[in-house]
Amino acid sequence: MSEDGVVKKFMYVNRKSPYGTIYALESLEVVLITAAFDQDVSLTFTDDGVYQLMKGQQTEGIGMKNFSSTYSALGDYEINKIFIDKESLEERGLSLSDLQELVWEDEDEDYAEKSSINLVSRAELSEIMNNQDVVLSF
Amino acid sequence: MNMLHTINKSPFENSTMSSCIAMCSQDSSILFIEDGVISVMKSTKFSELIENALKEFKMYVLKPDLEARGLSLNNVIEGVEIVGYDEFVDLTTEHKTVQSWL
Predict the structure, then answer these.
(1) Structural domains for chain A
(2) How far apart are alpha carbons B101 and B19 in whole angstroms?
(3) How many CB pairs under 8 A join A and B?
């Protein structure tokens, strides 16, 4: 719980490809900061945002920091509600198997490893978004 | 050769790629860089547009930008030539002018 006991539901909506702009990296940094304040955080990857989670990113050639491995740390920050827009994957010819697996450990079940990823439709996303206190778009 | 167009934006994000193809004249080439590389991947909703345009224009895509994004070289539409920075430089000198679409 945070100091004054107020926990809000924060959703980060990621809509951009990594590296072309700074949005993806900035979002990830803000997400980790929010998690440190013990807030209820969820992440949505939609539109080109789904590319942020692509497996096998190799950034040596463009001289930029490869931050894709940081996503796998989200589970350690108790960020385990990750929503991936199914339609966005489909229109890009992608499937979940093209994306990295993100997991968290459930301490109530002897630290069993569970997937953080939820494949959802846009209709479902709409409802999930509606239930948030704060929605931040990147 | 006529003109080299470079495209650095995702086709899902704005209309740069389709505008470029619509305005591209004969004997011109298109080079996809940065987020523009998404344009030439197989099985997206833009693949058909690219395949048709390949009948008229030469198309190139920058390899380091594909690799950075985890986009497989095998998933690049056939006929699009995968190039490195050296060839990027050659392309700019071989063409009369360069139009960098933003």
Answers:
(1) 9-137 (3.40.1260.10)
(2) 10
(3) 72
B61-91 residue pLDDT tens: 999 999 999 999 999 999 999 999 999 999 9
Tracing tokens 């993100």 back to the chain, one arrives at: A102
* Residue B44 to residue A93, Cβ atoms within 8 A: yes
- pLDDT given at position A124: 97
Residue A127: half-sphere exposure toward Cβ, Cα within 13 Å: 4
The mean pLDDT value of chain B amounts to 96
User: pLDDT digit string (tens) for B11-39?
Assistant: 999 999 999 999 999 889 999 999 999 99
Question: E strand or H helix at B95, and its extent?
Answer: none
- Domain that includes residue B46, residue range: 3-101
- A16/B70 Cβ within 8 A: no
Q: How far apart are CA A39 and CA A136, in angstroms?
A: 14
Q: What is the pLDDT of residues A53-66, one digit of tens each?
A: 999 999 999 999 99
Q: Which residues of B touch A56 (CB under 8 A)?
A: 70, 72
Task: Kindly provide the ipTM of the predicted complex, given to two decimals.
Answer: 0.91
The CATH number of whichever domain residue B92 belongs to comes to: 3.40.1260.10
Q: How many domains does chain B have?
A: 1
Under an 8 A CB cutoff, do B70 and A92 touch? no
CB pair distance less than 8 Å for B70 and A17 = no
Residues 6+ apart with CB under 8 A from B34: A19, A20, B8, B9, B62, B65
